[in-house]
Amino acid sequence: xxxxLSKATQPDADGCIxxxxxxxxxxxxxxxxxxxxxxxxxxxxxTLDKEVCLVLVxxxxxxxTKTDEFLDIGERMSVFxxxxxxxxxxxxxxxxxxxxxxxxxxxxxxxxGFGNYPTxxxxxxxxxxxxxxxxxxxxxxCNILFGNLPADSLLVCEVITPDGNxxxxxxxxxxxxxxxxxxxxxxxxxxxxxxxxxxVFQRVYTDDRSIDETMSVENHGVVMVPRGxxxxxxxxxxxxxxxxxxxxxxxxxxxxxxxxxEWIIEADKEKAAS
Length: 274
Prior knowledge:
seven-stranded antiparallel sheet; six-stranded antiparallel sheet; 274 residues; Jelly Rolls; mainly beta
């Protein structure tokens, strides 16, 4: 199995099915965890030196921090409803408690925090939703904690790719600290598939092919992108959802397309104009 692919496990005592730490990924900034909590179960954790974005992937919950309480938040029961989620931002040096009021799938997204922003509830109307691409390159993007809202380090969004389509495409990378041309951001992809028996393909590769891996990713799998290009393809019959978490030296997403495939952008513009 690829070292860049983390397969889901059965829930542990806390309900965790995925845990990607800097130590596991061999990087510095991003931590990602996914939990499955049954109705009535509670997850309580300190944030320590990390800012945290709690994404209610599906289900409803009560969320408490040192200063705030948000009761029975959440709405969607499937990530494929094309409906923005509820989320809660929690700063470093805080703590949170999440109690599931229905069965709950929870993503815990972490990156270095510096105490610049307070706890806040992120409601669906605060997220920005857009459709990108045309034809088999069309996908639907929801910015949860991205350009729509500030944070110290975290960038969080989710993408739905219809069956037969591609996303994160044409292939792009963000692994060089060279603003304003490109920025360095580590990234995780948390995948969900509809129907759940399916899979998607994700390739991660660098210009020099020191990394060149193509993975078949099943439901609840996580792909780690330390550097390089990272397109995703959804086979016929299976819709793709993924939750992206990014962080790096600066909170600025500037990507660089693979020159071998950049011609696709101009070709798509011509198709859209015709």
